[in-house]
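Protein record
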Amino acid sequence: MKETPTLQQLLNSASIKRRFEEILDTSAPSFVSSILTIVRGSSKLQECSANSVVAAAGMAAALKLPLNPSLGFAHIVPYKGQAQFQIGAKGFVQLAMRSGQYRTLHSGPVREGQIKEIDFLTGEIIRGEKISEDIVGYVAYMELLNGFKKSLYMTNEELHAHAEKYSQSYGYDLRSGRKSSVWSTNFDAMAKKTVLKHLLSRYGIISLDQQGYAMMKALQADQSVITDDGFRYIDNEHGGEEKIVPFSEVTDVPKVDVEPEENNSEEQKEETSEEKNE
């Protein structure tokens, strides 16, 4: 019986090394080193299949998003023995800003009273006056250079319902009273990411040029295990059903002339504590 290669063996293989070099050029060795460092620091990731770890890392590389946990752009997250690719809110912002078409992009909490009403026709948010520090929901806002503006608001109840519908692990937490899901342990980070992801998927610039295509890939690949057949959303599978979005090759993203940046600014460090392992 043929032995399954270890992560180290896979990363040392000629084909994998060549593919990372094609994508990242001289940054490939440091990127591969970061993969090993991340896995060594997580007992759960060490239990995941090496192929799923490499595939998740390959998607991050193709999107030119560093996996450095201190930055919070992209993550490799363990779930039931498989490694999922997950992109952080800052990763979506990074991809959007690379297009050069966004003036503003933001997501954050909304406190009681800050939203007076939402115009049913235009979707425009009419602001009110904050009456308490209680967070009642989350909002994402985008403005393009051409003047197009759009916002999206979700209440805490809508966000919890979304999490329960699309995350089995969160549903398990609700039934068992445990806190194992990221939705349970870091609701703020997941809420910010979710409203931003919804806004971009509905109204963001998604086109067939290299930057728009990269955003489309990121939206598809987020929170999935990447297989030879497509993206498998194992945290949203019920009754053994596999939800697959076919694609030709995991790293088939048009070349983007942006190298991963490891900017350890104080502002990024503060935000990362909320967004780590989304």
